[in-house]
User: Which sequence fits this backbone?
């Protein structure tokens, strides 16, 4: 495996998961419950959009566009 190819894949992964974790963080702050420790949590059906977003952002986008958002940017 060429080093430049590996760097592109790592960059694509960082971009994709920055988008996914950014959504998760924003969603938990907006719709989650504040815990005693100062964090946020989502339980039950309210937590379902988080894995659904992951599924759409990775598998769904790749099926529709041929690449994830990170792969499209990183090349």
Assistant:
């Amino acid at each position: 495996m060429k080093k430049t190819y590996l760097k592109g894949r790592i960059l694509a992964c960082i971009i994709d998961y920055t988008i996914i974790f950014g959504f998760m963080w924003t969603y938990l702050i907006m719709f989650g419950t504040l815990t005693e420790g100062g964090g946020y949590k989502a339980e039950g059906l309210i937590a379902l959009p988080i894995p659904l977003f992951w599924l759409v952002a990775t598998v769904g986008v790749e099926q529709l566009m041929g690449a994830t958002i990170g792969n499209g940017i990183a090349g």
